[in-house]
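Consortium newsletter contribution from the modelling node. Members have asked for a concrete example of what our holo predictions look like. Here is one, prepared for the MUC complex that several groups have been discussing at recent meetings.
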Amino acid sequence: MSTVIQHIETLLVDLPTIRPHKLSMTTMACQTMVIVRMRHSDGIEGLGEGTTIGGLAYGPESPESIKRNIDTYLAPLLIGQPSSNIHALRARLNRYTRGNMIAKSALETALLDAQGKRLDLSVAELLGGARQEHLSVLWTLASGDTAKDIDEALLRLEQRRHGDFKLKIGANPVDQDVRHVAAIKEALGERASVRVDVNQAWDESSAVRGIQALQDAGIELVEQPIPAREHAGLIRLANRFNVPMLADEAVQNARDGLDLVCGGFSGAFALKIAKSGGISGVLELAHVAQAAGVGLYGGTLLEGSIGTAASLHAWATLPEMAWGTEMFGPLLLKDDIVVKPLNYTEFGVALPQGPGLGLTLDEDKLAHYLRQ
Ligand code: MUC
Ligand code: MG
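And here is the predicted structure:
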């Protein structure tokens, strides 16, 4: 008899951050992860993670909705189904349920982790093999204080932990944000690349003013300056400035990617497994980008080690990304729930080795941070 999915457990895990993380729409002091434990009839357990930023501040799914919708709607569609055909299971979820991409991503990760453990292959090997074993990782400066951000960047450079920095802006008036960014770029000079993420906070005319000043200050990349749905505006900005635009919230999946490139977008796409419903969906988007000559960037919703490792296995199957990755989520957290944390070294991170994701849960830590 073939192996079937037997039981799916979802756990809310709250981990404090090492410092407040200030974005245009929220300030985080804690990250909540939804951890999926999926047990199969052969005794194998697959792990997955569904994580967003700031409750409902970032997108339409909250940690609580991710848990509730998996428990109530998604898990019952999977229980009793054969474990191994991940394409069929993905199609089944998408046939009977809409949206909930973070929840679906967590489930697909758990399926791939289990399948890798079953076949004694890493997730990257299951996907056809890794083309890279070490991926570059930037750091986000978002303390809300210019001097603290500069000190943090200098320390990361000295530690050889990160060589590229992304600044979260959009919470303050445009001119104040631009002064903050320019001061950091001036302090770091040619030693580091500095990018910004506006997280949709500007309208198009503010964006024109802000981006001109950022370009003059030597900023290398401008992420999601205007609201996600304004594809035409993002295309206009991409065509107007030399500094490239990075589409993030605007590009959730391959269909969004196709719309943007057909409309004349150039620049780069932020790939996130959480936006695209998992690894299969995000790789579809990556392939659209590659066909269109749009640059790739490995994005995060600030997942912990499980979600970060799943993303790394996906990115490892692609050629080196033009804009690197931001897979630093575990480093923003005070602690970890896996036995052997990811290995951050030499301005990047090593692809975890071993079957599946290559991670083992630390049951004591998990119990400690579990929401009661
Ligand atoms: C985002 O919008 O890119 C990624 C890094 C970070 O600090 O926040 C995220 C979300
Ligand atoms: Mg972003």
